[in-house]
Amino acid sequence: MDSSGVSLATLDILIAGIKSAVAWIFGLFSTVVNTIASNDLLLYPVLLTMVIAAISLVVVIIKKFGLRPRRS
User: Fold this and answer.
1) b/e for 41-63, b at 16 or more Cβ within 10 A?
2) In 3D, which of 57, 32, 59, 58 has the Cα closest to residue 46?
3) Which of 4, 17, 38, 62 is the most exposed place for a label (fewest CB within 10 A)?
4) Which value, in Å, is the radius of gyration of the alpha carbons in the chain?
5) What's the confidence (pLDDT) of residue 72?
6) Is the pTM value of this prediction over 0.70?
7) What is the DSSP string of 52-64?
8) Across the chain, what does the average pLDDT equal?
9) Sequence-separated (6 or more) residues with CB below 8 Å from residue 37
């Protein structure tokens, strides 16, 4: 097997690439959060959706533990 066309990157180059990718993702996330927080037409529906999602998650977790409401 001839590997003359393959060159492996060093670990510091890989870590630098990962750092720049993470910085880009957090920058994008920051831009989205700032856009939502600065616009009331986006803020209230997003907050309502987050509250509904949290309540739904609690209900699902409670059902997983076997606690169900009583049926009359």
Assistant:
1) eeeeeeeeeeeeeeeeeeeeeee
2) 32
3) 4
4) 23
5) 59
6) no
7) HHHHHHHHHHHHH
8) 88
9) 43
